[in-house]
């Protein structure tokens, strides 16, 4: 394929791990934006392979054909395993796929939620490939793996792991490469918890809000995976490590909003019983209101340690004014002082995340 002036398109070869909500949205975006990417960037995305948790579809030549890509999309839209396609190679795990397809210049894109992809990402860098992560897990385990996966900015991007499409990680990287020093970061990094907190602040009952958000697909399949604070804790750790601090998850104090007795019951039972937390939450909201404050689930990230949990904030502060599922990051540095750098906006959503992943891929390919 060529651009209008006859120049050949620059290939953007990639391998996708994970064809769930984000991976699928990315595949559709690649198809939809094909002409846009060609005419504006002179780039043609070549899909070398797509994998789910059980198997992989690998291109015979440089790229899966449009027809093969359509088959993958249809299959995963129906939530069927890729193993059901005749073009699938069974038993090809992430490391084998990386070794087979991720030579120099190929981008391995991790859109899984798995803690098992670290070695494939590491191996890709070792053999000259590049990596993009939407998956927080490999960046929040061993610090040494975090370092290996993030130290070469020419070959690695993980922008969507915090704040989805918001430019939080890239801002942090620019702050550090300028020689400035991060002092602390505060903010709200869960669209779901942001939505829940602003809804109860408006007087809506906690149980009803959780059940409504779950029914609309705004929460994780099990809302306790949002309410336990671990996803925010992982984001806080990525921000801390991105600020240059050698911390681990054990350095993040996490306030779990799910009481112990509701932790291990079935999802259905939990949804029935979540209203029992009503009294506790409305009392806290009321107490905040009397002090001119709002209740938020916020993160504080500092070298001395991090905390994620319920926090009273002034209603007129940026966090207090936050609405809906917006995220907010206030980055305090030696130069951004006394006023912090503030980044705010939609910080969640499958399509926004897929768009951010595509942007990360393009940045790596265009160099
Ligand atoms: N949704 C958002 O707004 C958002 C925002 C920022 C970041 N993220 C992150 O993006 C990632 C993807 O989220 P999602 O909502 O798309 O998750 P998802 O719907 O659960 O999809 C995960 C996909 O990964 C596949 N998978 C699991 N283990 C694998 C392995 N070892 N090798 C290859 N594929 C594997 C799954 O395969 P099967 O299909 O076989 O199960 C599935 O296709 C997560 O890490 C999430 O935290 C999401």
Structural class: alpha/beta
Which small molecules are bound? NADP nicotinamide-adenine-dinucleotide phosphate
Mean pLDDT: 94
Give the low-pLDDT segments.
none
The N- to C-terminal Cα distance equals 21 Å
Most strands sheet: 7 strands, mixed
What radius of gyration results from the CA coordinates?
Answer: 21 Å
* Beta-strand residue fraction: 15-25%
- Counted by DSSP, the helix tally is 15
Instruction: Give the neighbour order of strands across the main sheet.
Output: 4-3-2-1-5-6-7
The amount of helix comes to 25-40%
Order of helices and strands: EHHEEHEHEHEHEHEHHHHEHHEEHEEH
Gross morphology: globular
DSSP summary, beta strand count: 13
In short:
The protein is α/β, with parallel strands linked by helices. It has helices at 21-32, 34-41, 66-77, 94-101, 118-126, 143-150, 168-177, 191-201, 206-215, 224-227, 230-242, 267-273, 278-290, 318-321, 350-366, and strands at residues 10-17, 43-51, 55-58, 88-90, 107-110, 130-133, 156-157, 182-188, 252-254, 293-302, 305-314, 326-333, 341-346.
Note down, in words, how this protein is organized:
The chain is 40% helix and 21% strand. With 367 residues, the chain is an alpha/beta fold. The longest helix is centred in the last third of the chain and has 17 residues, at 350-366. The radius of gyration is 21 Å and the shape is globular. The model has no long low-confidence stretch (mean pLDDT 94). Residues 17-23, 51-54, 81, 94, 111-114, 116-117, 134-136, 160, 164, 348-350, 353 line the site of NADP nicotinamide-adenine-dinucleotide phosphate (NAP).
